Amino acid sequence: MTAPRTIGQFTTVAQHEVRELLRSPAHVLLWIAFTALLVFSAYAGRERVAAARADLALIEELDQRTLDENRERLVTGLAEGATFAERLYADPHWIGLRHGARHALLPELGSGALAAEDDVLAADAVLVTSAALELARGETTTTNPTLVGAGALDPAFVLAWLLPLVVLAFCYGALTEERERGTAVLLFATPVPVGTLLLGKLLPRLVLLGTPAAVVAGAVAATSQDPDALLRAASTAGAVLVFTGVWVAAAALVNVGRAGSASAALLLAGGWLVATIGVPAAADAAWAAVDDGPSAALEVSVEREAKHVAQSERAAVLDDFMADHPELSTRADAAGVASYKRAVWATQDRVEELVAPIAERRDRARAERARFMAMAALLSPVTALERVLDEVAGRGAARRARFEDAVRSHHERWRTWFVERTLAGDRMEPGELDGVPRFRWEDEPSAAVARHVAAPLAALVVHALLLALLAAARRSRFRPLERAADAD
Amino acid sequence: MIGAIARHELVRLARDRRFRTLAGLLLVLLLAAMSSAWLDATERADQREAASHAVHDTWLDQGEKNPHSATHFGTWTFLPLSQLSFLDPGATAYSGVATFVESHTRGARSRGETVPAPLRSPSGMAQVLLPLLIVLVGFDVLAGERDRGTLAHLVGLGANPRALVVGKALGLVAAVLLALVPAAIAAAVLLLLPPGADTLRSLGFGAAQLAHAVLWCLVVVGLSGLMPTARASLVAGLALWGVTALLVPRLAADAASRAVPLPSPRALAASVAAELSEIGSAHDPTSPAYAELKAQVLAEHAVDDVADLPFNFAGWVLQRGEELESAVYAKSYGDLDERHATQEDVLDGFAWISPRIALGRTSASMAGTDRRHLADWDASVETFRAHMVRTLNDVLTYDERASEPGFAVGRETWEQVGTHRYVPRSAGWALAGVRTSALQIAVQLLLALALVGLAADRIARRPGSRSDR
Asked: How far apart are CA A377 and CA A361, in angstroms?
């Protein structure tokens, strides 16, 4: 059969299908409802991003206000006759430890509208002081836990969970209904091969469903004004289109089988169930079986014990600390640094030393879990798409780890700066506040973003190809019948 | 006749490979989720118990110090896991495991342990996957007969359509419940293993799950009788499930957060800090509010100097300050709690069209893991905090040696403070919090029965498919 003839047959079938779909009120209504829901979820996502940004801006504003107030207090503290409490506001040790503390902020990406943050352990603002850094510590939340449990109405949910169900509703009966109506016999009697027939029936559905979904999702990223917005948009749109293709290919596979339309719908619903809930639940169960991370309760009690031990052994801890830092002894004495400040540093070091093993265990378990879940996500198209959207939205584990590393480095700079400044004298001038280290954040480079989305995107392509190839292989079983019909 | 039809339907379903496969799959998922959650919850409970003992030992061994310094030393209290939390972890899995108790500051819960994944808990599966199973196995109980032409035949032979529909519904209910018996037995055994099982809560939890399963069976049988074909019945069932079990709960949460906006954590903290700064610090009795208190107490005791008071003024003013600060926290967090409750009222409004919301609210409440139980625990921590601070400030206020430099007390005083013990609320209290949800499930059951009645009428009028006519 020649290519032009095949294309002609395909076009005829596709045009007929589009006309049929547009004539079906149920299909048109479902398409409109789904697209409207997707647009609404994107709008709701934008609002969530705006709220998160406003919250971060509020933190900055409060930090700045505190700084301005403390600048005034600092001036008072420097004045003759200042009380003990007032003098503390001019003391670099206490400025670094308490009065001058500022937050390190993880900016909310505009593409964050695609997927809401569901990791309750992830903080987007960390208060940095010269005390020990507590990245894993939660903060007071005002969110209603009842609503958290319901989940967010974000594009990630609409695309990863609902789009397959809409594809199912559009495609489960593409060929099976023809069989049930008895029109399949007539169709097979035409010279149009089953493959062309199936493509002609399913490709318009892929375009009708996948294109608007990809356009809306891509537009969210493209208009986000994020760094690499186009790369994020292309990744999102591509992933959504391929994801739609996965489910259309699955529908093709069940359509060329012997199942009736109800059984075809059942099979697709079963596939959806496995991909959406089965695989993530199995991954969770598998991880729970091997997870050796410490519980939050254990962390709390270890940290508590460490602080108690360090404080009760303060004299010995201070001796050890001074033996490790002989330079502090002479310079401290020269600068008149009170022994309690050295004791505070020594105690902090001791607490960090005592907490380090469990903190390392926790961080290692978190990193291993992130790696495990990244691999497990490739097994299901649903989790693979969710992973692409998470990465594009800036919710990926790598961006989070990068933020935590940046906070650790900043904390180290902060602590060093204040220790040095405390050693240099116990009173700060107002102008020196401007020299205090500031947290600087640079988002991931394009190559990193591309690398993070590459694996789940490739997994989606593999899922789509495998299902399409399986469908094509099964379609070939129809050839004898088709040939027989041709012969007739 | 109804019994015979129900038995026949039960046998048919038991022989149906599709039913056996799907029910087996759900059962495996449920049993795996249940055993894994039970092991996890048991381990967490043990860890919290051990951590609780460890921090209490640290409290007792803190050494001698000024009693008010001890209020700053503080202690941790750990959120206990309810017996049913492994079946429905609700909000407790991710809402923080412990609270730090100290003076001047309302305790904030520490970080949670897991990411919210409600669909992967046994209760989540029962809320979402069980209805899907019922749709997938029950869509053709009547519509399949209609497609095959046997429905018209049965009615033609004199079968009562109402008895036919009720019998089919009973058969489906029996098949679904029998398939879940192993999961129910496993849950009962795991609940009864630990001593002091809360039978009433367990029964309430089970009754809500049972009512929800029966509700879906009735809805599916009703749709199967009303739809012209098995395919239409399946599509209608799946659409109803997708909308009510997946979409509406999220839409409802979105609507609730729009209708009743909440302050961000920082905005709340800033507003609390602003109110506290108006009061001033009890550690700085020169602030205006405390100067006023001082004047009042001096006038009350008709003395000119705090040294002439019959108690230590430093301790007294710290306690007054604590009470003023606690009032600020109580108001701010009380307002937040009210807003949460109003959001849940919005959610309850959507529950009229989403049985999953009604079941989820009832299930978490009976399991003792919903927001209301958490708020109750927070309140009990606040009560303990007030007790701890008052006990220690009273020592500073009334001990004759308190005004001496270097005044310190030891273990005996720390023992007087004791530990925080949360007394779990009764099943009645839990049920009272979800009265609306329980009522909604009951009304939905009645509506589902009406749907079944409509299906019977439809079969009586037109037992065959359109093509038969």
From this structure: 24
